[in-house]
Amino acid sequence: TQLLEQSPQFLSIQEGENLTVYCNSSSVFSSLQWYRQEPGEGPVLLVTVVTGGEVKKLKRLTFQFGDARKDSSLHITAAQPGDTGLYLCAGVADKIIFGKGTRLHILP
Amino acid sequence: DTGVSQDPRHKITKRGQNVTFRCDPISEHNRLYWYRQTLGQGPEFLTYFQNEAQLEKSRLLSDRFSAERPKGSFSTLEIQRTEQGDSAMYLCASSLSERTDTQYFGPGTRLTVL
User: Fold this and answer.
1) Which of B11, B103, B111 to mutate to test the interface with A (most CBs of A within 10 A)?
2) CB A33 within 8 A of CB A43
3) CB B14: neighbour CB atoms within 10 A?
4) Which residue out of A33, A47, A96, A103 would a mutagenesis test of the B interface target, given it has the greatest number of B Cβ atoms within 10 Å?
5) pLDDT in tens, A24-68
6) Contact check, Cβ <8 Å, A88/B44
7) Cα–Cα distance between B93 and B100 in angstroms, integer?
8) Does residue B72 contact residue B52 with C-beta atoms inside 8 Å?
9) Using one digit for the tens of pLDDT, what is the confidence trace for B11-44?
């Protein structure tokens, strides 16, 4: 069984602070994805990382794929209240397998 | 095209009743997926269609659940004899068959079984 563990489960920080959330897998996926989900909505794909060691940036968000392609991190610089949401990592194999997510709350 | 749509957005039903949800995918997408998301969890795969063919079903999909995509466009998910444990958000997603890693999700149908 392929499992994705995300940490922390919950994170509440002040606006302007930096943060990192993590995704660790028990096995190798062909790629890892990060999604953001807001209450009452479906997940929205932020990024797909494919190559071990790959780093992708999306404005203030930096995504990194581990060298062994079993872990990933999401770093947010100068967090803003609009970053509040559930951040899900997902492994892509023959289907997409989601972690439980990190619920992020940015306090103004 | 405005993306994947789902109807209804919310459904409250009594235990034992049947419910049916609809998903309209992005028009050119030939793959359609159903997921279930319970509180504190990520989405869990239920089933998917390639055009009108249902190609895979998770063991989460008990015999009370049935999904159809009769014309390869919209899909329905029916739950018979609902149980309180069926309460969840039911998400639909669609993709092109050659880009199954890029799925677009609908807003979901939140089911509450009383």
Assistant:
1) B103
2) no
3) 8
4) A96
5) 998 888 889 999 999 889 999 999 999 999 999 999 999 999 998
6) no
7) 10
8) yes
9) 999 999 999 999 999 999 999 999 999 988 999 9
